[in-house]
Amino acid sequence: MSLSFSSDSEFIKKLSRVVEENLADENFGVKELAQKTKLSRTQLHRKLKSINNQSVSQFIREIRLNKAKELLQQELGTVSEIAYQVGFGSPSYFIKCFKEYFGYPPGVLLKLPPEDVDNEVSDQYNAGQSLTGKNRLGITLRLLVGMLGVITITVVALFVYKNLIVEKKAAIQDKSIAVLPLKNLSDDTDIQYLAGGIMEDILNRLSRVNDLHLKSRISSEQYRDPDISLPELAEELNVSYVLEGSIINNGDRVRIYVQLIEAESDNHIWSKEYNQDLSDIFEFTSDVSKQIADELQVALTTDEVASIERNYTENTEAYNYYLMGNSLLWPHFWHERTKGDMTACIEYYQKAIEIDSTYGLAYAGLAEAYSALAGIGASWIPYEEAVKRCKEYALKAISLDYNLAEGHAALGDCASDFLFDWDLADKELKLAIQVNPNFALAYRYYADYLMIMGRHKEAKEYLDKSSELDPVFILTNKSYANWYYDMGKFEEVLKIHKQSKRFYNSPKTEQFVIFKVNLHQNKNEEAFEALKQYILLDSPDIDYTEKLSAMYSEFGMKTVIQWFTEYYKLHEADNLQIAALLAYLGEKEKAVDYLVELYNKKDKRWRLKIIKSDYDYRSLHGHQRFTALLEKMDLADR
Fold first, then answer.
1. Torsion angle, alpha carbons of 471, 472, 476, 481, to 10
2. DSSP-H helix ranges across 112-223
3. Are 412 and 185 in contact, with CB atoms under 8 Å apart?
4. Beta bridge partners of 214
5. Residue in 306, 270, 97, 299 with CA at minimum distance from that of residue 211
6. I need a labelling partner for 556 at 20 to 30 A (CA). Which of 34, 44, 491, 606 fits?
């Protein structure tokens, strides 16, 4: 669609129309709007900024919010339902944005009759005006009076005074930061690990400060070379500030430039250039961390200062090897790990330990590396050996530093994933979160554990926190998909997979998921189409389309699934999925046979941990042999 604009007002009207036409599409954002208008992102951003001083993301969000308000006033759904209708993928994020924009939570509109909502305020909203802090405070007071009626003038006065004081003191209220990897401006690709590692060190130091909200390095890593503006990047990560910079290698010294930026306005808050000897790198990361806390008006406690200044090793060579190990382990966390990568990763961690045998973080890194090898079933190391080393190195990390969140998280995940030691998993993962409340990975590990236990309400809370800290980590999205699948919320599963395609795209996996969620919803036509696509991707040299179509037309979906179950046995040999298909067909004994067979394979047994809560196996609950299998894993009575 090509748009022409005769005036600024016409431009805004047409932009609004395009957004409204795509309102329910949560993936419709700046990029898509720019494509519709035949403008570049930069041109669109500048033009909108010049007209009404808004970013493109802000413009889209405000249209969504105003439409949501209309729907809420008409009581056309619950808060969550309307959040999805207007393109918010997360109801909790919708509630946060709604409250920030209008001054009160969206649920208020469902609880109060329209006449109880202040008319003057409604007029302002319908005109699309953003409300100032004073407007919002007035709205809050009027709503409180309308709802409670019995609040005395004295209490109201105290409430006003308290909020004014709080507002005055909190000059910087949202102290959320994304720490981006340094841009390597030199020709030396060998220091790329250092570019990421330095900023990770700063992030780890700042994560110990309670008043700061840090985004995980894994999310930030996605934006090493961003193709979007800083305000848009901050919008995607849901942060108010961004720390970025560059590094140039110069022999034994490096020149590092760092700058702290207020994301929405793109204004520089602070910047500094360092000409640093690599032997003084710890002093640099500590100095930058304290400077950021100071710029964001954070009053550091004595313990927080000590945490920022603390070095987990005093040896820069050991530190470098640790960073090199990290560079191979974490960026590949959602991709297939190669033998070369993982072998080098472990060697780097081991070299760090050889130099400094008290380096707890390096032991924790080794634990995570061996956990990864156990999980992927690496052929070059026995499964039991990988699990054994994972536990040993995690325990060693904790013995060296009991306040090391990474060590507790590695041990807790090992206990949950491989050892079936549920009490140890619960204890260690809670400790990891307690030690470092900004550690996104620990929240996801604990959420996964809670789902295994069937405690989905609690799991969702920890997933939300993990997502808040690490918005684009692919494994957090996978955990969300598992949560929605367990709960039978299949449309949400599809949304999660669609969102994840930007960072990890597997068409075959996507079609298999579409097949299963439609099957469970009795949408046989959609399930059949997805199954054909899956088989076409899985066996491109053989065309099964005509055969399957005739089978479906003559005998129906059940016969197709029976055929596919046999096909899947030959091509994938995945006992979990075969058991799921058999359970769907009502062949419970055969389904349990495949689960028992999986249990008897020691290197595959760990995959069974999900069967208690997974939607696929609900029909097996109460089956004597299925219950016996849960008892073997100490899951029956949990």
1. 100
2. 119-126, 133-148, 153-169, 192-206, 217-221
3. no
4. 177
5. 299
6. 491
Q: Is 275 helix (H, G, I), strand (E, B) or coil?
A: strand
Residue 287 inside a domain? The answer is yes
- Angle 318-320-324 (CA atoms, 0-180°, nearest 5)? 115
Q: Kindly indicate the confidence band of residue 220, based on its pLDDT and cuts at 50, 70 and 90.
A: low
CATH number at residue 280: 3.40.50.10070
Q: Which of 281, 270, 264 is nearest to 229 (CA)?
A: 264
How many domains does the chain divide into?
4
Using alpha carbons, list the distances in angstroms from residue 591 to 45, 375, 580, 587, 596: 56, 23, 7, 6, 9
Asked if 583 and 619 count as a contact pair (C-beta separation under 8 A), the reply is yes
Q: Do 472 and 569 lie in a common domain?
A: no
Answer yes or no: is 147 within a domain.
no
Tell me the residue range of the domain where 529 lies.
499-632
Determine how β-strand 253-262 pairs with β-strand 241-250: antiparallel
What's the pLDDT tens digit per position in 541-588? 999 999 999 999 999 999 999 999 999 999 988 999 999 999 999 999
Residue 89 has pLDDT above 60, yes or no: yes
**For residue 84, pLDDT beyond 50:** yes
268: its two tokens: 């520089």
Could you tell me the pLDDT band of residue 214, with boundaries at 50, 70 and 90?
Answer: confident
Q: Which residues of 133-156 are buried (b: 16+ CB within 10 A; e: fewer)?
A: eebbbbbbebbeeeeeeeeeeeee
State the Cα–Cα distance between residues 240 and 234, nearest whole angstrom: 7
Give just the sign of the alpha carbon dihedral 218, 222, 224, 226. negative
Q: Cβ contacts of residue 622 below 8 Å, gap of 6+?
A: none
Residues counted in the chain = 638
Tell me if 540 sits within 8 A of 514, measured CB to CB.
Answer: no
Do 94 and 38 meet the contact criterion of CB atoms below 8 Å apart?
no
- pLDDT at position 402 over 80: yes
* 1: DSSP letter: -
Question: Is 637 a domain residue?
Answer: no
Asked if residue 634 lies in contact with residue 628, where contact means CB atoms within 8 angstroms, the answer is no
Answer for the pair 359, 351: CB distance below 8 angstroms, yes or no: no
Q: Confirm if 106 and 82 have CB atoms less than 8 A apart.
A: yes
CA distance 194 to 321: 10
User: Using CA atoms, how far apart are residues 513 and 490, in angstroms rounded to an integer?
Assistant: 10
Interval 482-536: pLDDT, tens: 999 999 999 999 998 887 776 667 889 999 999 999 999 999 999 999 999 999 9
pLDDT, tens digit (0-9, with 9 covering 90-100), for 100-129:
788 888 877 765 554 444 443 444 334 333
The single-letter code of the amino acid at 479 is S
**383, 605 Cβ separation under 8 angstroms:** no
Rounded to whole angstroms, how far apart are CA atoms 139 and 141? 5
- Cα three-residue angle 139-144-150, rounded to 5 degrees: 145
> Tokens standing for 133?
């802090």
Burial class (CB in 10 A: 0-12, 13-18, 19+), 1: exposed
In a domain, 170, yes or no: no
> Can you tell me the mean pLDDT for 402-429?
97
pTM: 0.69
Q: How many CB atoms lie within 10 A of CB 209?
A: 25
CA 177 to CA 311: how far, in whole Å? 22
Map tokens 């603390």 to a residue: 310
